Amino acid sequence: MIPGMRNLGNVCYAIATLQCLLRTSFVLGVAPALPGTVAHAVASLAAAPTDEALTRILVGAGYDLGQQQDAEEFLLRMLAATEGASDALRGRQVITTTCPTCGDAVVRHEDSLIQGLCVEERASVDALLARALGAEEIEGATPCHVCLETARRREVRQDLWPAVLVLRLGRTAATLEKTFLAVQLAARLLTPQAEAEYALVGVVCHLGPSMSGGHYVAHVSVEGVWQCANDDHVSVSDPVADTVVAHNCCLLFFQRTA
Ligand SMILES: [Zn+2]
Q1: pLDDT of residue 91
Q2: What percent of the chain has pLDDT above 90?
Q3: What spacing in Å lies between the alpha carbon of 112 and ligand 1's midpoint?
Q4: Who surrounds ion ligand 1 at CB < 5 A?
């Protein structure tokens, strides 16, 4: 079993996220870090979890203990605090916005760290990712500088797939209520154009009726054996077959295999 981490006061969001991140090649990037840095604290947490290392990461990411926070926000702030180590998660996207009337196109390249997916119906992760990277029609955009049309076609294409792919499942509806729609998890993920293959290695689940409170746990795969890390309690799990996980997963961590 992996070692659990002691909850130092409402920090389950950080524990669950770190447990997943420690199962990815992100840890290779923090290994050479200098003592005193957040990256060094992550490396020592990977070797053996201590209260001191966890506290250093939280403080380094700008958090106080004792207050529940959002797992994705924590991940972004922690990655910013570990500088170059976050390269393992960095992908690149090409975003093309086309005017349907005159054909004027604007092409933008953007780094991507966490890919957001809309969970609007029961679906597989593959289907949600394909939709996020597909084309969408937009109404009411800024008027086209050529013909003043306000409709657009926006297309997102991933042109660099990272070593570690993190997907965020949007579980907050327009009403700000948490949505419990099931996401069908699978052990493997093939990207929409089959450019890359990934293995699922970590799942962060948010348990509770609303995203503004509740509790986070992590399911992590260690050499193909799944375990649930609930703060300092670790047990055997099977997230791909677990309906509670399907309805509550919010961050997925994938390691690239091909
Ligand atoms: Zn136009």
Answers
A1: 96
A2: 83
A3: 28
A4: 99, 101-102, 104, 144, 146-147, 149
Q: How far apart are CA 189 and CA 113, in angstroms?
A: 17
Chain centroid offset of residue 90 CA:
12
* Distance of CA 151 from the midpoint of ligand 1 (Å): 9
Tell me the CA–centroid distance for residue 135 and ligand 1, in Å.
Answer: 17
Q: Are 222 and 23 in contact (CB under 8 A)?
A: yes
Reported as a single tens digit per residue, the pLDDT across 174-206 is 777 888 999 999 999 999 999 999 999 999 999
The H or E element containing residue 169 is strand 164-170
Q: How far is the CA of 160 from the centre of ligand 1 (A)?
A: 29
Domains and CATH numbers, the chain: 12-256 (3.90.70.10)
Q: Which two tokens stand for residue 234?
A: 């670790």
Per-residue H/E/C for 96-121: EEECCCCCCEEEEEEEECCEEEECCC
The total of other beta-carbon atoms located within 10 Å of residue 134's CB is 12
Residue 210: count other Cβ atoms within 10 Å of its Cβ.
11
Q: Which residues pair with 255 in a beta bridge?
A: 164, 199
H or E element that contains 236: strand 233-236
